[in-house]
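G., the chain you wanted modeled:
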Amino acid sequence: MPSLGCTSCGAPVAIVNRFSKVVVCGYCGTHLRITDSGLDISGKYPKLAEYPSIFSVGSSGTILGKPFRALGRMRYACKGAHYDEWFLEYDGGTAWFAEDDGTYAIYFEMLEAADLPDPEKIKAGQNMIVGGKKVMIKEKGIAEIESGEGELYYYQEPGTRVTFLDGISEGKKVSIEMTDDEVEIFTGRPLLRRDIEIAGEGP
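Predicted structure as tokens:
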């Protein structure tokens, strides 16, 4: 896709993936919604602090032997720590890669959002039906979106509180993220570091 100009600072902004909904200007940090007519300002937020990560925007290689490219990430703060969710081009489609203190998972299928119980009533250890499947909830928590960079498939403003549920269904990981106005449901699997090969890595 052609480059467009940031509507805040005028710097060139390249959009790589046709599924991206938001792009973050790498020069001024403005979050820009991608529309049919161009780019609209969503807001200007601080750039992400530099924490160690195996990826950077534009990283490429293979995951489970299939090609990927890292397009962008959202960072979440939780219990005094943080974790990242990367938006990937993956094997001809899209996927989401979760990176949390040296642990990794890939989510490559988004289930249709379903009616869920009141988050306040959901507890770790219980079973619930999600997208027609029984899910055992393993963990429940609350995180806050810090910021983002690169291209993003979906967007919530920094400062948004997110209730997250991590579970297992039919041997797959299930991740549910709920805000006041949106529910995102993904299935995937955990990864080992050896499952991930990044172009340019040494032996």
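The radius of gyration is 17 Å.

Shout if anything looks off.
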